[in-house]
Amino acid sequence: CTVKTCWMRLPPFRAIGDRLKDRFDGASRVMVSNSGSARKGNSVRSSNRPKKDKAALANSIHTKREGRGRKYKYGFQLKPYNPEHKPPGPEDLVYLEPSPGFCEKNPKLGIQGTHGRQCNDTSMGVDGCDLMCCGRGYRTQEIAIVERCNCTFHWCCEV
């Protein structure tokens, strides 16, 4: 008698991160179109659930049914915001609204802005001046600090 044991294993964390980053960089803006036909009969929503939850249920864009072509699962479909772009596929990342800008102050959204913050002139990261100052330019300031060190000299040995 032979026994076969299978272990489910995730790919390396770096591979998952790289793939998500690629999808994030290629994400496309979409808008919701109600042109799909809503399912009748067994509704996705129970009668006591608010109607606004319909968009929250959309965790997949569409599903394929055998021999019947593409059916839209939740009664709506996602169309590209720019009509010249192709529609998103089931593996694509999409977004409905662009992220708010972090450069300018927006108290309504709790964004402090970046004006007046200190940046690192030599950094290419998020603390770097090119990114943090949002193309507005920046002033460099060089400060020389002179401090007393309160050092004392102790003779250590005899010659």
Brief summary of the model shown:
With 159 residues, the chain is mostly loops. Helices cover 11% and strands 11% of the residues.
Could you tell me the mean pLDDT?
Answer: 76
* Low-pLDDT residue intervals, each spanning 5 or more residues: 36-69
Helix proportion: 10-25%
Distance between the amino and carboxyl termini: 86 Å
DSSP summary: helix tally: 2
Number of structural units classed as domains = 2
Radius of gyration: 29 Å
Could you state the order of secondary-structure elements as H and E? HEEEEEH
Number of strands: 5
In this structure, how is the largest beta sheet organized? 3 strands, mixed
**Structural class computed from helices and strand pairing:** little secondary structure
Order of strands, main sheet, comes to 4-1-5
Beta-strand proportion? 5-15%
Shape: flat
Pfam families: wnt
Keywords: Developmental protein, Disulfide bond, Extracellular matrix, Lipoprotein, Secreted, Wnt signaling pathway
Function: Ligand for members of the frizzled family of seven transmembrane receptors.
Protein name: Protein Wnt
What this model shows, in words?
- With 159 residues, this protein is largely without helices or strands.
- It folds into two domains: 27-98, no CATH class; 101-145, no CATH class.
- Helices cover 11% and strands 11% of the residues.
- It is built from two helices and five strands, in the order αβββββα.
- The protein has helices at residues 13-25, 129-132, and strands at residues 28-33, 63-65, 69-71, 77-80, 94-95.
- The protein has a three-stranded mixed sheet with strand order 4-1-5, with no helix packed on it.
- β2 (63-65) and β3 (69-71) form a beta hairpin.
- 3% of the residues are buried.
- Mean pLDDT is 76; it is low at 36-69.
